[in-house]
Specification:
Blueprint lengths: L11 E6 L13 E3 L2 E5 L3 E6 L13 E3 L5 E3 L10 E6 L6
């Protein structure tokens, strides 16, 4: 008797839903930056500040990364301007 076993894996590339909404924040206010990403398996959302993955490891308490992937920045100030980017990644196991 022959037993056939197989695993079917469907990988859907990650995609991000981009909003054209402009966030206007007053100095010392709070900025809410949403991030919605889809894919299978679910992609991991990382925020990059000035070219470094510093937002994933904590450090600056003004930045709060939410489980949903969104980012909250408190005490916003003009002198602390930064370039922020979103990185989507996923791990696919090979057997």
């Amino acid at each position: 008797m022959c037993t056939l076993r197989y695993v079917s894996v469907c990988v859907v590339p990650p995609s991000i839903q981009v909003s054209d909404r402009v966030a206007v924040v007053t100095e010392r206010g709070t900025a809410e930056l949403p991030c919605v990403a889809d894919g299978f398996p679910q992609p991991r959302i990382s925020w990059i500040k000035d070219g470094r993955l510093s937002l994933d490891s904590g450090g600056d308490s003004r930045y709060q990364l939410h489980p949903s992937g969104s980012l909250t920045i408190t005490d916003v100030q003009v002198g602390r301007a930064a370039l922020l980017a979103i990185l989507l990644s996923k791990k696919v196991n090979k057997h």
